[in-house]
Amino acid sequence: MSQTLQLPLDVTAIQKLLPHRYPFLLVDRVVEFEAHKRVLCRKNVSCNEPYFNGHFPGHPVMPGVLVIEALAQAGGILTQLSHGGVADGRLFYLVKIDNAKFSRMVTPGDCLELEVTLKRTIRNMAIYTGVARVDGEQVACADIVCAEVKE
């Protein structure tokens, strides 16, 4: 990634930052970024998402755990971009979720906004606060801890 970050970042650029791939890459776009502070990403929720086949037939709802995973992925993007956008063999694993709260269901057609703020880093761990919104209304939030592991 170049020194000059050109926003928005599309899914091709995101795939250079995260190891996740379809169907588990849950971030489509990076629209705002402040190094070592915050990131705002988007996930366009499509009726073609594979989990809608069973969650729930006739009443599709994005599983809450995947909303939290999307927030964790946005946190990974924040960390990777803050370190110049080069993975250098670094992987980050979700190790803890605190204070998760779900306020509303996420359904096909929603544009999920994922705002993640870095609270602090301790050695190889990053602690984030994430808020997911649809149309400006909070749908979920959580405190997320990720740990860096060298490949």
Structure, described:
It is built from 2 helices and 6 strands; from the N terminus they run αββαββββ. The protein is an alpha+beta fold and 151 residues long.
**Assembly annotation:** single chain
The tally of beta strands, per DSSP, is: 6
Poorly predicted residue ranges: none
**Helical/strand content category:** alpha+beta
Strand content: 35-45%
> Count of DSSP helices?
2
Helix fraction by DSSP (H/I, runs of at least 4)? 10-25%
Rg estimate, integer Å: 15 Å
From N to C, what is the helix and strand string? HEEHEEEE
* Amino-to-carboxy terminus distance: 20 Å
What is the compact description of this entry?
Helices cover 16% and strands 41% of the residues.
Key attributes of the depicted protein:
151 residues; alpha+beta; globular
List the helices and strands and how they pair.
Layout (H helix, E strand, L loop, with lengths): L10 H5 L13 E6 L3 E7 L19 H19 L7 E13 L8 E12 L2 E10 L2 E14 L1
Antiparallel strand pairs: 1-2, 2-4, 3-6, 4-5, 5-6
